[in-house]
Structure formats: structure tokens, C-alpha cells
Amino acid sequence: MHLPDAPPANTTPQAPGHHAEESDESSIQKHLSGAIYEHRVRPGTKLPEADLCRIYGVNRGVIRKVLDRLATDQLIELIPNRGAFVARPSVELTRDVYALRRILEAGVVRSLAKAPFHPWLEDVRQQVDEEREANRLGDTGHYIRLAGKFHLDLAAATRNTALEQHLKRVVSQTSLMVALYDVPGTNTCSVHEHLEILQAIEAGDYNRAERLMEEHLLGCERQLRLSDDEAQATDLAKALNPVSPRGVPSRPNGMQIAS
Ligand SMILES: [Zn+2]
User: N or C: which end of the chain has fewer CB within 10 A?
Assistant: First the structure.
């Protein structure tokens, strides 16, 4: 298979047989989910198998496995006799998921602030600097990914795997919601608020950390236009074939989202 505008083959040696197929599936999954998270492929977009086979240069078996995985992550919906569509979460579900995030993430920052040491904190702080820079440069995809990563990194810092995995899924869901309901030109995560949350954790002020996180997530939710659910049409081939300055797919590697 080929990823659109992928780096030369000799930089990414492929294992033979089954391993090559598995590697195809993983690469396509990351590329496609990245395109969804970065809002290049809008919620509600149909994902015809034949188009995806052509775009990625693989057979239907590979594409079906990828679609199954994306459905498990709730990023797409598989509708019998109609095919695969990028998920379109309802307004009601959007509000519920943000409420869930407030509960989970208030708990995350509370437990982090109560810990005596914060060995992870400098790394996350540096990343927030990167987030600010990406925002300043107008590198929206990178910015959205880093903004989402902030929330996942805090969850990871608790070293509670169950919590981390659960939050990953919920943050993914909100990413789709942002793609569906955001107002063009607004940013859903405030870099300044991220830094304030880190300061409160560092100071051990768990009440403040918890309050700041709740307000931050409420602010994110308020920026969404939750009365208008009209998705814009997506040109699939164009969206999945982005040309970045380095001539490789613009950051196909998965996850990282807005909040
Ligand atoms: Zn945030």
C-alpha cells in the first residue's frame, strides 16, 4: 500500500506477509483517524471502501479491518447496507461527554496536585510552549493535536492505566464534536489556561486545580455552536492527500485532539 505522499519506501522498510498487512492497517488507521481529528474529513462524511482502496492502494480486506477498528473507537459508524460514515455525535451526547470529561479530569488534576512530586511536569510545560507556538504560526492541525495531548498527558501522569484509556476514548469523542460544532476561527483550548492548571498542580493547590480544569472544559464546550449541526461536505481524496511542506502526509499519526 502507499500512504498519499508517503516518504520514500527505503525509509520505512516493510515486513513481509502478515506483518506487512498489519503494518498497512496500522498506518492507514493512524492516517485516517488523524484526518478526522484534524477536521480534514468532516463528521458525516461517507467513507466508500472503493475510494479508500484507491487512495491507499490496498485491498478491501485491509480497508475493512481499518474501518472495524475505527468503529470500535467510535470514530466512524458502520451502517448496514449503507457503509461507513465518520461519526456525527448529537448535541445531547456532546453535552454529556463534556460533563463526563469534567468529572474525570477534575479527578485527574486533584490526584496529581496531591502527589508530592511531579516529575512529568517540565515535559508537559514545554509541550504547552510548543502548543502556543503552533497556535501563533497558525499550524492548526499541530495545535489541535498538542492541545488534546495536554489532557491525555495529565491522565497518563496519574499512572492509572484504566483512567488513561478511558479518557483517551472520551477525548477522541470530543475531538469529533469539535470537528462538528466548532466555530471557524476559534480555538477550543486556551494555552494560558493550560499553564494555570499546571501552576495549581505544582503548588499542590488541588481545589484550585480542580476548579480551573472544570472552568477550562466548560469554556471549551461553550465555544461550540451546539445548535447548528450542519456538516460541511468533504472531498475525500483531497482531504486524505494533504501535501505538507516536507512532502509527507501531514502528521498521520493518530490521536491527539482538541478539547
Ligand atoms: Zn485544554
Answer: N
Instruction: Report CA(31)–ligand 1 centroid distance (Å).
Output: 23
Cα distance between residue 4 and residue 55, in whole Å: 7
| CA 216 to ligand 1 center in whole angstroms | 7
Rounded-to-integer distance, Cα 11 and Cα 90, Å: 42
Q: How confident is the model at residue 229 (pLDDT cuts 50, 70, 90)?
A: very low
Q: Could you give all domains of the chain from N- to C-terminal order, each with its CATH number? A: 9-87+231-239 (1.10.10.10), 91-222 (1.20.120.530)
Q: Which of 118-127, 225-234, 242-251 has the highest mean pLDDT?
A: 118-127
- The DSSP 8-state label assigned to residue 116 in this structure reads S
Q: Name the amino acid, one letter, at 25.
A: E
**pLDDT (tens digit per residue) in 8-58:** 333 344 444 566 777 889 999 989 988 887 778 888 899 999 999 999 999
